[in-house]
């Protein structure tokens, strides 16, 4: 059985049912092709807020369902970047790196303070990038976050 790199950068194993994020192996549901992107929590927040505001303006809904409200509350609470420009800036810090989209999303969503913390939270980074280089990128991401 041979593994190949799929469009998203992870390994595709047609027999695999479970994924393994540490090895960047994801179930089929997460491999939808080259035009799919891993969204940041902050991007989901903007999308849900926009959709909710449009629906309210059109009087399409009076109230969100319990699940929708919980989801919106969660992304509001967990969003690290509050506008499109800051999200774009955060993504750009990692754009020249050979990171998997999942790793970039995790770095931006979690905003680790150090390379050590980043590698503890995202084990697939271990051995792929030096601590000094990762520290510099994390510092740059935090600078961009502070200017929003």
TrEMBL record:
The keyword Isomerase does not apply. One of its GO terms (molecular function) is nucleotide binding. Residues 31-148 form the RNA polymerase Rpb4/RPC9 core domain. The keyword Nucleotide-binding does not apply. Its main location: nucleus. Keywords: Nucleus. It is found in: Nucleus. GO terms for biological process: DNA-templated transcription initiation. InterPro entries: HRDC-like_sf, RNA_pol_Rpb4/RPC9_core, Rpb4-like, Rpb4/RPC9, Rpb4/RPC9_sf. One of its GO terms (cellular component) is RNA polymerase complex. Belongs to the eukaryotic RPB4 RNA polymerase subunit family. This is RNA polymerase Rpb4/RPC9 core domain-containing protein. It comes from Steinernema hermaphroditum.
